[in-house]
Amino acid sequence: MNPNNYTVIDIETYPNEDMIDRLPEPKIDARVKDPAKIEAKREEGRLKQIDDMALSPLYGKIACVGHCQNKEIGCVIDQDEEKVIRTFFDKIIPFGQTGSPKIVTWNGMGFDIPFIYKRAIILGVKPSVNMGYFMRRYQTETHCDLMQVWCNWYGLEKLDNVARALLNEGKEEFDIKEIKNLIKTEDGREKIAHYCNRDVEITSKLFYKMANVLF
């Protein structure tokens, strides 16, 4: 496995506020009978749903896609989500003359890649790549999900924890809840891109470190 043949991918997402009215009715414990308590639980559940919107491709949007190819880091970011996704397909991981694309992520099988292809379905964007190509469990040749490799395909681990232990460096402090506001301005988009690029950089360093032993 040659790490230089892989493209490191990371995405940042944010709530699609146009979808708030389409959120399902929060579930209330049937044991709660008091009308005031029911309403309080409903409000609590709704706020939790809104907080979690960015985690679902049904109710969230992609702000940016960070990428690293041959140690060159870049970020595609735009308020036009469709443009971001099309650029991802056409420029970042196209099928080219050198063969099929290979990617590296941290929890990309559980989050990044499913989020991208589901948003593509919702927006009607036809990918230039068969996204199922990156979703084959227990393989690293086409999609090396470093978190899955580190956890032996069982459980979850934070990128920041592993990076601090293995690299003595970690993620930058950033309030991801601010993405929905930052995406609206040029300065804000630069801050999002900087944060995303840092995640890409750390993931890339971990890949090179792990590749020396595991692959």
Give a brief rundown of this model.
With 215 residues, the protein is an alpha/beta fold. Helices cover 42% and strands 14% of the residues. It has helices at residues 35-51, 81-92, 108-123, 146-150, 159-166, 179-182, 186-214; strands spanning 7-15, 60-69, 72-77, 103-105, 143-145.
Reconstruct the topology from this structure.
Layout: E1 7-15, H1 35-51, E2 60-69, E3 72-77, H2 81-92, E4 103-105, H3 108-123, E5 143-145, H4 146-150, H5 159-166, H6 179-182, H7 186-214
Write a structural description.
The chain is an alpha/beta fold and 215 residues long. The chain has a single domain (3-14, 63-214), classed as Ribonuclease H-like superfamily/Ribonuclease H (Nucleotidyltransferase, domain 5, 2-Layer Sandwich), CATH 3.30.420.10. The protein has 7 helices and 5 strands; from the N terminus they run βαββαβαβαααα. The protein has helices at 35-51, 81-92, 108-123, 146-150, 159-166, 179-182, 186-214, and strands at 7-15, 60-69, 72-77, 103-105, 143-145. β2 and β3 form a beta hairpin. The mean pLDDT is 91.
